[in-house]
Amino acid sequence: MKPTYFELDFAITCIDTAHIRSDFVAAYLIEDNGRYAFVDTGCHLSVPILLATLQAKNIAAENVDYIILTHIHLDHAGGAGELIKHLPNAKVYVHKYGAKHLIDPSKLRDGVISVYGELFFKQFLGDLIPIDEGKIIIAKDGDKIRLGNRILTVINTPGHARHHICIWDEKSQGIFSGDTLGVSYRELDTLQGELIFPPTTPIQFDPEAWKNTIKKLQKLEPKYAYLTHFNRIKWSEKSAKMLISNIDNFADIAKQMQNQPKRHKAIKEALLEYLLKIAKAHGVSTDKTKQIKIFKGDLEICAQGLGVWLDNNS
Question: What is the pLDDT of residue 121?
């Protein structure tokens, strides 16, 4: 297997996990003084790509010290149980609310299958392998993870999910942000920069907490966001304002559709209309059919998450 990965500066590699499509879900490999850490893993089916990346870069599995999970949604953490079987010295950092689901993933598996069906689970996610409790380290706000001579700082970042953390990397002045700093696809970049919008995935979307999290992260004055969806982008106050505005607008769309007889469909259609509108204003010239294909990967789960949020706040 020949993996696709992007060598960034600051000894960081962005790996395309090939989940659903290319340029959609990334995992990152950080290096310092011959020691390595993965940030997020993609799903179970992505693990051969991560291992092939180590092989392609002549990295011994014994030199990987950590798997750091921003949160336990399966496109970010579904491969952790399988991956750690191949990394004899690695430990898994995860928020305390996510740890129990890594030790016993049965409820997580059942929840995903109940929403998406068993066929989707097997075809696009593969499996969920439990992780021995002794391999797990609870990531607490402010924790310092030493990787070689590099310090990675854990930051609690609720909003997308209560169990979400981000990692501040002093060396690159960047944040490994999982979903907290939004999603942004390179096909939608224009002279205006990156188009950024929120993944409002079930079941813990909390717009006020999310906006407060973004404001907290802005105090670090980050230069980069290492996004899971997809790859590194430059980060600025403009980026933060765009994301906050789109969080508000997503929530407003949900509220406007709240009493529609086919609420989920109405939210999904309104979100697509909104995304196409902001893409046009952003100067995206990719044809509409391709834009719809790009947005399609997020529309279903965004609409579902907004629906759960409405139900929880009605």
Answer: 85
| Environment class of 50 (CB within 10 Å of its CB; exposed 0-12, middle 13-18, buried 19+) | buried
Confidence band (pLDDT; 50, 70, 90) for 299?
A: very high
Packing angle, helices 237-256 and 263-281, rounded to 10 = 150
State the Cα angle at 93 between 92 and 96, rounded to 5°: 120
CA separation for the pair 89, 65 (Å, rounded):
6
CATH fold group of domain 5-236 = Metallo-beta-lactamase; Chain A (3.60.15)
The length of the chain, given as a count of residues = 314
Closest CA to 178 of 98, 267, 64: 98
Chain mean position to CA 218: 19
Q: Strand order in 150-156's β-sheet?
A: 144-147, 150-156, 165-169, 174-178, 224-227, 231-234
Where do the structural domains in the chain lie, given as residue ranges? 5-236, 240-312
Question: Could you give the CA distance from residue 205 to residue 305 in angstroms, rounded to a whole number?
Answer: 6
Rg (CA), the chain: 19
Within 8 A by CB and 6+ apart from 117, the residues are none
* CA pair distance 188, 191, nearest whole angstrom: 10
CB 125 within 8 A of CB 46: no
Q: How many helices (H) and strands (E) does the chain have?
A: 10, 13
Q: Is the pLDDT of residue 296 over 80?
A: yes
